[in-house]
Amino acid sequence: MAAPQNTFKAALARGDRLIGCWAGFGDAYATEVLATAGFDWLVIDGEHAPNDLRSTMQQLQALRGYDSHPVVRMPMGEDWLIKQVLDAGAQTLLIPMVDTAAQAAQLVRAMRYPPDGIRGSGAALARASGFSSISDYTLTANDQMCLLVQVETMAGIKALDDILALDGVDGVFIGPSDLAADMGYLGKKADGPVQKVIQDALAKIAASDKAAGILAVDHETAETYVDWGAQFIAVGIDVLMLAQTARNTMARWRDD
């Protein structure tokens, strides 16, 4: 029996547009609620949300059987942590702050078993192998791994051509907020110079054999990014959705 097909990776390869949402509560119950909305993919955020390995695994379990594909954003691209998250059942990782092709190449290796990589082969006790019920997991898992790297500094923008040339990188996700900060526009990601860099980057990625991704919670901005070449785009953040709806509800009562 082979490793399960990564439907998200296959959809990116077909060129499908995929609409996603950020899952930032660090809670399986909330993430399962998001899945009922029918998003194509959901980011289990380990960088800026209060997730650890166990809460990440619980959300992977909660999403099983739903059409929303889990994308785990790691806090950093450490080999040992990648191994743990993959063993917990993740197939698609989003890695922040990738500034060089060398970084991206190491991430590719960390997600693959030898001889293509360095992933430890102790899958027998792992959720990823169905606890040894998927007999050919280690022999077939490499092809189902999907790596999305976040380019969110000018160093990463300058290295974009080299990153796009790498086998094993499936998509490049532009991080507008950190990119703006790195450019000297902290909190001003909508400013013209930042938007020009984003536009050029999305176009370059879209012209390659990789998929271009980005986050935009404003609908008009999201549509603009799609026009610029974004293929997989996150259009909401669950924490903000709750906060904004709650505040708007209370504001209506205050105004009465």
Give a written overview of the molecule.
This protein has 256 residues and is of the alpha/beta class. The protein has a single domain, classed as TIM Barrel (Alpha-Beta Barrel), CATH 3.20.20. The protein is 43% helix and 16% strand. It has 12 helices and 8 strands. It has helices at residues 7-14, 28-35, 53-63, 79-87, 101-110, 137-140, 154-158, 160-164, 176-182, 192-206, 219-228, 238-255; strands at 18-23, 41-45, 69-73, 92-95, 146-151, 171-174, 211-215, 232-237. The chain has an 8-stranded parallel β-barrel, surrounded by 8 helices. Helix 2 links the parallel strand 1 and strand 2. The protein is globular, with a radius of gyration of 18 Å.
Helix content: 40-55%
- Per DSSP, the total helix count is 12
Q: Low-confidence runs (pLDDT<50, min 5 residues)?
A: none
Question: Helix/strand/pairing class, anyone?
Answer: alpha/beta
Q: In CATH terms, what is the fold-level topology?
A: TIM Barrel
Record keyword descriptors for this entry:
eight-stranded parallel beta barrel, TIM Barrel, 12 helices, 256 residues, alpha/beta
Give the topology.
Layout: H1 7-14, E1 18-23, H2 28-35, E2 41-45, H3 53-63, E3 69-73, H4 79-87, E4 92-95, H5 101-110, H6 137-140, E5 146-151, H7 154-158, H8 160-164, E6 171-174, H9 176-182, H10 192-206, E7 211-215, H11 219-228, E8 232-237, H12 238-255
Parallel strand pairs: 1-2, 1-8, 2-3, 3-4, 4-5, 5-6, 6-7, 7-8
Helix pairs in contact: 2-3
Compact overview of the structure:
The protein is globular, with a radius of gyration of 18 Å.
